[in-house]
Design a protein that fits this description.
This protein is of the alpha+beta class. It is 65% helix and 11% strand. It binds adenosine-5'-diphosphate (ADP).
Length: 432
């Protein structure tokens, strides 16, 4: 919060009402001091110089100064009390007693009552009215005139009016302050939210730039390989090498297609295309059977045994068929890709309110250091860094993001040289 510039009129106080009243008293003191000093000067320089008036003006200015010091450094209510008593006395003894009790000065006596409710608590107006009534009665007795009861009633009427307006003002100020506080809190909360959103946007922007640079980097290798082999095909006249070059070209094209598909998937995930698409009840066993069927030939060629242990119970999950198929194909594809010999076992089961998919392979396994990063986009493990196994480093990231968006979990346990176990849990879809 910005600290308001303090002037000599302001009094630092933790209570805003107290600060407001003390500031008002200071303003009144300054105004009265200016009037007193002017009166003194005029009195001194007037032809019929009235030195007593000049002295009175000076004395009043000094009294104002003392009240200011009390108000500023000691106590607001005490200073206001002294000021009101002083004001009452000046008005009461500044004119003939008769004039004060029932004449021209009567009207001025209302002034301390009104000021009292402003400078002190609203009820102060009644105390000042009592004081003024007592002074008025004493003056009446001294001047041997009847006590002015009508005027005393008038003092209390003014006190009541002052009390009412001061009270209303105080309530309004309290309400205003609480609204202000609420607004402050809201502004603070909104500012915090905006700052957070801004941080998030900056983070997303950085991620986007990183993603674009990684995609470009990944695209460069297959594209330059394609260009090199096309050049070789064009320039070299060696028909016996043609088949080799063509198969490299096919491989690179496949790699490029895979990369483009993966990038498209990632961008669909980022744009929330999947989460907004219609979901349906999907039988996980059916998806697995279809995927396994398409991989059987490849597994057979590689000499890998593919075992299916599918649950007899319905293993229905809610999602989008394309998404679930993508998860299964990425995980099964990895199992085949990273298993040189041995077997792959695919099992489904129901555990409570979860459908569990387990893929076990006896492949090369993942190094412990890699396990922490395995779901990061474009991350490829050290087991592939020295090999020629193709990949984009996006398959697990895609599978992981899809499963999490469906409320599920993916877990990987692996031992180098022994194999890998991927466990996926989906929330079960209980619809009939
Ligand atoms: P990639 O295109 O490299 O296969 P993925 O995101 O699918 O990308 O996998 C990330 C990395 O995780 C792989 O590069 C590999 O190091 C490791 N990995 C994934 N699945 C297996 C597995 N079944 N066996 C051994 N390593 C695996």
């Amino acid at each position: 919060m910005i600290e308001k510039q303090r002037s000599f009129l302001d009094v630092p106080s933790s209570d805003p009402d107290d600060a407001r009243r003390r500031r008002l008293l200071n303003i009144l003191l300054v105004a009265l001091t200016v009037v007193s000093l002017l009166t003194s000067v005029i009195a001194l320089f007037s032809p019929d110089a009235a030195s007593s008036l000049a002295m009175l003006g000076l004395g009043l200015s000094i009294a104002n100064g003392i009240i200011y010091l009390i108000n500023r450094f000691y106590s607001g209510p005490l200073a206001a009390g002294i000021f009101l008593v002083m004001l009452t006395l000046i008005i009461s003894f500044g004119d003939e007693p008769v004039e004060v009790v029932q004449g021209r000065t009567l009207f001025f006596l209302s002034f301390p009552i009104i000021v009292g409710s402003i400078l002190m608590k609203p009820t102060a107006s009644f105390w000042v009215a009592v004081l003024i009534s007592l002074v008025s009665a004493a003056l009446a007795v001294a001047a041997a005139v009847p006590v002015n009861l009508v005027a005393i009633m008038g003092f209390f009427t003014v006190a009541f009016g002052s009390w009412l307006s001061a009270k209303t003002l105080q309530t309004a100020l309290v309400d205003l302050r609480s609204i202000n506080r609420e607004l402050d809190e809201r502004v603070e909360a909104r500012t915090y939210e905006l700052a957070e959103a801004n941080d998030r946007l900056t983070e997303l922007d950085q991620l986007k730039s990183k993603f674009v640079s990684e995609v470009s980097h990944e695209l460069r290798t297959p594209v330059s390989n394609l260009m090199i082999y096309l050049d070789i095909l064009e320039l070299e006249n060696q028909p016996e090498q043609r088949t080799t070059y063509l198969s490299v070209l096919r491989e690179e094209t496949n790699r490029l297609t895979q990369l483009v598909n993966d990038v498209l998937d990632i961008s669909h995930l980022d744009l929330g295309v999947y989460s907004r698409s219609e979901t349906e009840q999907i039988d996980l066993n059916t998806v697995i059977e279809k995927q396994v069927a398409s991989l059987l030939v490849r597994a057979g060629v590689l000499g890998i045994k593919l075992d299916l242990k599918l649950s007899d119970q319905p293993v229905n999950v809610r999602g989008n068929n394309e998404q679930i198929t993508r998860v299964v194909s990425n995980l099964l594809g990895n199992a085949i890709k990273y298993t040189e010999k041995g077997s792959i076992e695919v099992a489904t089961s129901v555990e409570g309110d979860r459908v569990v998919l387990e893929i076990n392979d006896t492949g090369m396994g993942i190094a412990p250091n890699d396990l922490d990063h395995i779901f990061e986009r474009f991350y490829r493990g050290e087991n592939v860094s020295q090999s020629t196994i193709p990949g984009t480093g996006l398959g697990l990231a895609i599978a992981h993001e899809i499963v999490e968006s469906l409320g599920g979990r993916v877990q990987i346990d692996s031992h180098v040289g022994a194999g890998t176990q991927v466990t996926v849990q989906f929330p079960i879809s209980a619809e009939g």
